[in-house]
Design a protein that fits this description.
The structure is a single chain. By secondary structure, the chain is mostly beta strands. It is built from two helices and ten strands; from the N terminus they run αββββββββαββ. The strands form two sheets. Strands 2, 5, 6, 7, 9 and 10 form a six-stranded mixed sheet that branches. It has a four-stranded mixed sheet with strand order 1-8-4-3. A hairpin with a 5-residue loop joins strand 9 and strand 10. It starts with a helix and ends with a strand.
Length: about 140
């Protein structure tokens, strides 16, 4: 019985100490603004990342990244959206691209969610869909 109690206590402590990446941080002003462009191909980015998940809550888009180069405390992710509407067989959408910048190319692999404020982009848009290069799904917002 002592072993079970001890293991339960250790599990509770471990779960309580895990860092939570929550998109509620958007209310604290920590989200980056979406940047508008007419030419996604002109942007340069480190390619050491992938988008694992996308979630939308209100006007906030949270993207979870797996990325290398995480040793740099000043690495950045910026979301650019081309304001030219595209169309495929399903619906019109906007195309986006994430630009990753780092100054430390260490081999450490990190997973973290970053949030983006869609408010300025959403005002007056014709479509409510974004397809981000390198991410398989179309994101509804």
């Amino acid at each position: 019985m002592k072993t079970y109690s001890l293991l339960s206590l250790i599990l509770i402590i471990m779960l309580g100490s895990c860092q939570q990446d929550d998109i509620s941080a958007a209310t604290e002003g920590e989200c980056s603004s979406v940047k508008i462009t007419n030419n996604l191909d002109a942007l340069t980015s480190a390619e050491l990342f992938s988008i694992q998940e996308a979630k939308v809550l209100g006007n906030t888009l949270s993207l979870t990244f797996a990325y290398g180069g995480g040793c740099d405390p000043n690495h950045t992710f910026e979301l650019y959206i081309d304001n030219n509407l595209r169309e495929d067989t399903t619906a019109p959408y906007f195309e986006g691209r994430v630009v990753f910048t780092t100054n430390d190319w260490c081999k450490r692999l990190d997973y973290k969610a970053f949030c983006f404020d869609l408010t300025p982009f959403k005002n007056g848009t014709i479509s409510d869909k974004i397809k981000i290069r390198g991410f398989k799904d179309i994101i509804d917002f």
